[in-house]
Write a structure and sequence with these properties.
Elements (H helix, E strand, L loop, with lengths): L2 H28 L11 H34 L17 H6 L7 H4 L1
Helix pairs in contact: 1-2
Length: 110
Amino acid sequence: MDDKTSNEIKEKIITEIEKTEKSIIEYKKITKPIEPDCAIGRISRMDAINNKSVAEAALRLAEEKLSKLKYVLTKIDEDDFGLCAKCKKPIPLGRILLMPQSRHCVNCAN
């Protein structure tokens, strides 16, 4: 992988890390406990609880993505970066730029 491509990927990973960290902050705000003394109706409370569970799931996914992005950033300068962790074939540049946290090619990811 040439230096230009490597720098482009590194910039993409750093940008994704920043976006994911901002998302995590927002998800943490949304997933705060729902106060029982809030003056909302029973249906609204159930809707708020449901929305909270969806936000908690999104928070877990965002935290997992952040962890993977930070790991991939540490591996970008290694010789085997860009190779599928399973089949060892090159991962297409488009996939790396679209999902920089992925360590598998499309075939092995399925």
